[in-house]
Here is the input.
Amino acid sequence: MKDRIPFRVRPMLATLVDKPFRDSKWVYEEKYDGIRILAYKEGSQVTLLSRNDKDRTHSFSAIAQSIRALEPLTLLLDGEVIALDRNKISRFHLLQRGIGDIRYAVFDCLFVSGRDLRHEPLGLRREELEQIFSGKDGLILSRRIAADGLDAFRVAKQQGYEGLVAKCLTSMYVEGRSHEWLKVKVHQESKCIGLAVSPISTA
Here is the structure.
């Protein structure tokens, strides 16, 4: 059926590393402190599933409504529901209490208008996401911090982010833990921050 997505997925997970690095083939995004959500839009029906397949559609009904208003008939988004504080920083304790500016930070598009994008490179999937994204209430694109991974880490530290997620632009979407998505937490700052570290050596 044209208004159905013929599969369900488990989320792609980043591997934790202890050092930031620079590589022109990677992008560096803010690491959010929230609840991972896969959003399925099938016609007028929207389903929000957590990382452990719990249905959170009713918990985040306003976000579901914003996704329903997007143009594509079928759509599968990956992102994180977050609550932003006054400084626009995600805080999990605010989300637990249901306060703050609650948003869905979208960072991937796996299916759109009948097309399966999981085997396309991340760079193309991001382009597709940006084309369909219309800034509906409650929805934001994941924030890319800086082109250089070391600069991105410094910004993340200065701004008080939880950390950063580095993603290879050629990576396909795979279920489970991957070494083509890496995460660095700010509190694990390395003494070698000034050195360039390759993704292979840090994994």
